[in-house]
Amino acid sequence: MHHKYWIMELNRIVNILDAKVLAGKDHLSREVAHAFSSDLMSDVLTIPGKDVILLTGLSNIHSLRAAEMADINQVAIVRNKPVSQEMIDLAEQNNIVLLSVDSSLFRASGMLFSEGIKPLF
Amino acid sequence: MTLNYSISGGDFASAGNASSAVKSILKQLNIDNGTIKRVVISLYEAEVNVAAHADNGTITVDIDNVSVKMVICDSGPGIPDIELAMKEGFSTASAEVREMGFGAGMGLPNIKRNCDLLNIKSIPGEGTELNIEILLNQAKPTER
Ligand SMILES: Nc1ncnc2c1ncn2[C@@H]1O[C@H](COP(=O)(O)OP(=O)(O)OP(=O)(O)O)[C@@H](O)[C@H]1O
Ligand SMILES: [Mg+2]
Question: How far apart are CA B114 and CA B70, in angstroms?
Answer without folding.
Answer: 13
